[in-house]
Amino acid sequence: xxxxxxxxxxxxxxxxxxxxxxxxxxxxxxxxxxxxxxxxxxxxxxxxxxxxxxxxxxxxxxxxxxxxxxxxxxxxxxxxxxxxxxxxxxxxxxxxxxxxxxxxxxxxxxxxxxxxxxxxxxxxxxxxxxxxxxxxxxxxxxxxxxxxxxxxxxxxxxxxxxxxxxxxxxxxxxxxxxxxxxxxxxx
Length: 187
What we know:
By secondary structure, the protein is an alpha+beta fold. The protein has a single domain, classed as CalX-beta domain (Immunoglobulin-like). It is built from 3 helices and 9 strands; from the N terminus they run αβαβαβββββββ.
């Protein structure tokens, strides 16, 4: 009889404990309010040492990490070629901007800027770019276009361009993934 009483007590204690722990789950639901924009490449690639952004040496694919030649050859990833290096002869490169939140019924213009601190590339000499990107109506993506210019000067020192989203009046940038660095090889 003692064994049965202990067993019933244990079952009752476990039942009450499980009810107490599961009854609070509704309060723990995460609610997403508002929307933000982010740099797609910043969301998928690791930050550069000491920086708040990744420093890209290869053209990033959308929605994935940048694949180096070693990663592509390792067989650890699906059969994909290495992403092309960013060089002074790359021409136009596009970087995706993600709308994180509900799509909008009208086009949305989002601002971005070149960050002077960290940028060694010279506008008009090494690159050209605008300062806005448009996310079309009923879409979650826009594209920033950077035209890499071949200055004709060969150098062992790459030029760096840092871009940062500034957002729109009702659409702020995500504070953690709003910037990317682009390393333009000059050889």
